[in-house]
């Protein structure tokens, strides 16, 4: 972590103490959740863009879904998770922090859940699941993103490997990093979207539908 990053982390007060305790749980149990400055950035996008319906791909323990929902009672988050252990933990947390009305958990592989979430259109989609599959998630779900809607993709710099794949030693990780590189290039050249890549934490892409 560089000095600027630790300075900004100290500067940002942790706002919602209840949900924030889940970060400690995530760290202790090696559950990957959105990094703090990335979360602050996404929450700021939500305050600016004012989405009502958010689709999240990759719930884990429900942390980011509840963080997004905590911004306004108007916000509804549909979030998809396939791992049973995570599903159980997310359900427990959504109950515990009383977000049942605002957060709907859809169980199963996100590549197979389109029919269970297309009861509405979305103002924002957060892609935060299997990193090699971001393009598939994008292609499957953006047809139900409104014009002017926002797609946010996390981990687009993946541990610094995206900018320097030569340091990757294992074949599996190399394959995955190649997919992330392909996705980033595809995304920046996508004619239907304007994308901005941010060098924050593990890398964040913010894409706006229909902007040129
Ligand atoms: N968004 C969460 C947060 O910040 O609190 C963290 C999500 S975590 C990085 C990624 C999650 O996506 C994992 O829990 C994993 O089980 C789930 N996942 C990966 N591929 C998936 C898929 N194809 N369908 C549904 N969930 C998936």
From TrEMBL:
Give the source's domain of life in one word.
Bacteria
Database matches in InterPro entries: SAM-dependent_MTases_sf, SAM_O-MeTrfase, TrmR_methyltr
Q: Which Pfam families would you find in this protein's record?
A: Methyltransf_3 (PF01596)
**For S-adenosyl-L-methionine, which residues are the binding ones?**
34, 64, 81, 128
Show the CDD domains listed in the entry: AdoMet_MTases
Q: Which PROSITE patterns match?
A: SAM_OMT_I
Q: Which GO terms describe its molecular function?
A: magnesium ion binding; O-methyltransferase activity; tRNA (uridine) methyltransferase activity
List ligand-binding residues for Mg(2+): 128, 154-155
Q: What class of enzyme is it?
A: transferase
Where is the signal peptide, in residue numbers? none
Catalytic activity annotation? 5-hydroxyuridine(34) in tRNA + S-adenosyl-L-methionine = 5-methoxyuridine(34) in tRNA + S-adenosyl-L-homocysteine + H(+)
Q: Which UniProt keywords apply?
A: Magnesium, Metal-binding, Methyltransferase, S-adenosyl-L-methionine, Transferase, tRNA processing
Its BP terms in the Gene Ontology are: tRNA methylation
Matching PANTHER family:
CATECHOL O-METHYLTRANSFERASE 1-RELATED
Oligomeric form and interacting partners: Homodimer.
Role noted for this protein: Catalyzes the methylation of 5-hydroxyuridine (ho5U) to form 5-methoxyuridine (mo5U) at position 34 in tRNAs.
Query: According to its UniProt record, which protein family does this protein belong to?
Result: Belongs to the class I-like SAM-binding methyltransferase superfamily. Cation-dependent O-methyltransferase family.
Q: Name it.
A: tRNA 5-hydroxyuridine methyltransferase
């Amino acid at each position: 972590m560089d000095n600027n990053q630790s300075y900004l982390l100290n500067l940002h007060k942790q706002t919602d103490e209840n949900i924030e305790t889940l970060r400690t749980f995530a760290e202790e149990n090696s559950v990957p959740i959105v990094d703090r400055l990335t979360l602050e950035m996404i929450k700021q996008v939500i305050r600016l863009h004012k989405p009502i319906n958010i689709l999240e791909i990759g719930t884990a323990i429900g942390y980011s879904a509840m963080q997004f929902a905590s911004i306004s009672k108007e916000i509804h988050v549909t979030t998809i998770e396939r791992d049973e252990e995570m599903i159980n933990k997310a359900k427990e947390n959504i109950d515990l922090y009383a977000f049942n009305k605002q957060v709907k958990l859809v169980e199963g592989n996100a590549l197979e859940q389109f029919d269970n979430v297309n009861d509405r259109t979305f103002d924002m989609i957060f892609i935060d699941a299997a990193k090699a599959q971001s393009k598939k998630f994008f292609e499957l779900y953006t047809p139900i993103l409104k014009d002017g809607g926002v797609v946010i993709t996390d981990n687009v710099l993946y541990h610094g490997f995206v900018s320097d794949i030569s340091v990757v030693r294992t074949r599996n990780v190399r394959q995955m990093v190649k997919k992330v590189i392909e996705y980033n290039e595809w995304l920046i050249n996508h004619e239907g979207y304007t994308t901005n890549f941010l060098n924050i934490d593990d890398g964040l892409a913010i894409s706006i539908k229909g902007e040129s």
